[in-house]
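Field reference: "sequence" (input) and "structure" (output). Example, SGNH hydrolase-type esterase domain-containing protein:
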Amino acid sequence: MLLRPKCSEDSEQAQQGQKDCEEVWQHVTSRRRKRSVHAPAMEIQVSNRFHVLSTDTNAESGLDDPSEGREQKETPPIGRQKMHCPRDGGSMTTTPKRRRRVVVVGDSLLRGTESSICRPDQENREACCLPGARIHDVTERLPRLIKPSDHYPFLLLHVGTNDTAKNDLERITADYMALGRRIKEFEAQVVFSSILPVQGKGLGRNRQIVEVNEWLRRWCRREGFGFFNHGMGFQEGGVLGRDGLHLTKRGKSIFASRLANLVRRALN
């Protein structure tokens, strides 16, 4: 658009820098004032919240999710990291993850599983085998296994086989509840491993093991603990030793692999 400026008597209305009555043609275009946009500096907080296992994994592995059918409690953040993304090309800094400690404790059936469980991280993993241990023995031992400095450790317990030999269901469940009260003194994620079946000990013994495992599964869900169900697969040939109680080399390999995979999935 072409405009021809007027000569005004009132010089205050003329644009600054123009001369009065100047006969100059000007080409005027519409202009837009650019807005300056400043990207704010971002602080991104990333936290890895641990869940026992997803629903699909639970179904495949036999691990019951304690959050099912009850209000899920918020899991404390693990390995929290802060990343700063500076606007002016600064460097990005991260806080290294803190590794969780793993404690696996139980009776003599854990003998031979130590290598599979602890090999990936021997500094932060411990497998404690207590030959002949009953539930109350694990309850007494726990304070020496869980350190005050441990940050939300993962605790896996396999105990109860020896209790089914001499105690009735009422006594066994009472001992488990006492163990649960002791566990809650520590801020830990807890999974109970089901009692394995035995052979040659009479139908009554295996019937009681089934009853204890069924009670243990319901109790773990109610108390917010995980429950890993081995089922009856260990009754297959070549898994239990001659005494019908301890595991053969093949049985130990299967048992150790299951526990090690459970730990791996739990930490991931």
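Confidence is low (pLDDT under 50) at residues 1-25, 37-61, 69-86.
The chain is about 30% helix and 15% strand.
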